[in-house]
Amino acid sequence: MGNSVKSISVAFFLSSGALSGGAKVVLEHAERLSCIFGVNSTVFVEKTMPYWFKSRYSQVIHCGDFRNIDLSGYQVAVITSPNQLNIYLEWRHKKPFIHLCQGYEGDYIEDLKLWHLTRLIDDFYSYSCRRVTVNKFVANRLKMVNARGKIQALGQPIPLGFPVRPIEKGKKEKEVLIVGSSLIPFKGVEDALKIALFLKKLKGFKIVRISPHDTRKKEKNFCIDSFFVKVPPAMMPSFYKKAYITIYMPFKDGFGLPVLESIACGTPVISRKIPPVEETCGKKYPLFGNWKDALRFALDISDDFTLYQEVVKLGYRRLKHFSPFIITLKFLYIILDEYLRWLTSSKKNFCTQ
Hints:
Strand order of the largest sheet: 3-2-1-4-5-6-7
Number of helices: 12
Shape: globular
CATH architecture of the largest domain: 3-Layer(aba) Sandwich
Helix content: 25-40%
Structural class: alpha/beta
CATH class of the largest domain: Alpha Beta
Order of helices and strands: EHEEEHEHHEHEEHEEHEHEHHHH
Largest sheet: 7 strands, parallel
Strand content: 15-25%
CATH topology of the largest domain: Rossmann fold
């Protein structure tokens, strides 16, 4: 980078800081990068400040409108959503950009009734931009839709505050944990609740729900024992460690953070077999095509502690694939590589003028 640049500043763009897995991923990447000497990360948030996130090393700034941001003091910009296309178009000839992708938004248009965004999403992926994804599944998905630019799987680190290695056996309560919003149909919360209700009636389990939205009235028929809304990420490990099992039954997903969070806490996950979850858990981990098969297995591990421990060990073996240290260094390498590539390209263009 030359003697004149002794540090690198990275600008992240986050459309909304409302409590969600997607926002948490972006904020934690910026935080981890800022822990590295010589790296400064700033997250610009357009809507809703993430007061639930405690930033120690990175800066989080509420900008109101991305169009007001001056990127002249940053070496690299990281965009995270198609609705950030304008900032990319305004600065792409002046700064290198990286797209941090957690899932292809076009897959959710019909489910969320967001047909008005079809053109924006198509335009966003038609521009050539270096794209890094949370797993191989999303990388392959972008290649299938012919997204332009270099695409590579970065990976997803174990979230902040969660164990990064097997923990000593803690006390497990007779609780079933279900995380996610039932307002998003493809998250499969209703199927998860069906399994939990059977476990409650047949085995006496308590049902614990954690949701970003207060949907207690919508879910009142499932006899939920405890319902928590907008739980801060720092408190989530205690819920996972306490639960006997976690149930997560999405029909589609980009990654599925609850799966990784649960296995990191030594709690088996009863989950639907979809590609991103299978990539996280590994091919030997028991996953299921429908809620009835998932229920049968949940009943099995509630009776067979040896089987229960085997599933816990299978989860622990996967933790090495989600090392925060390795993935953060890999992200830094990508950022530096893109910056150097852009510098080289800029010098060539300058010399030919």
